[in-house]
Design brief:
Elements (H helix, E strand, L loop, with lengths): L3 H9 L10 H17 L5 H25 L1
Helix pairs in contact: 1-2, 2-3
InterPro entries: YqgQ-like (IPR009256), YqgQ-like_sf (IPR023164)
Protein name: YqgQ family protein
Organism: Vagococcus carniphilus
């Protein structure tokens, strides 16, 4: 798992489709959903850790991008 698209596909396997309209909010909501799947033992720890690393990187990059716009 290397991209946000990969994380979206993982969530899609569980019927979770996320689109709020704001990329930062989408990422944060995906993190929440992943944590819930992990706490419910629905996904493996390895998938959870990899997906969270991807989302944290995307979150940081999006914050940097938005700060650069101001």
């Amino acid at each position: 798992m290397r991209t946000m698209y990969d994380v979206q596909q993982l969530l899609k396997r569980f019927g979770i489709f996320i689109y709020v309209g704001n990329r930062l909010w989408d990422i944060e909501l995906m993190m929440i959903e992943l944590r819930q799947l992990h706490e419910s033992d629905v996904i493996e720890k390895n998938d959870f850790v990899n997906a969270m690393m991807v989302l944290k990187r995307e979150h940081r990059l999006e914050l940097e991008y938005q700060e650069g716009q101001n």
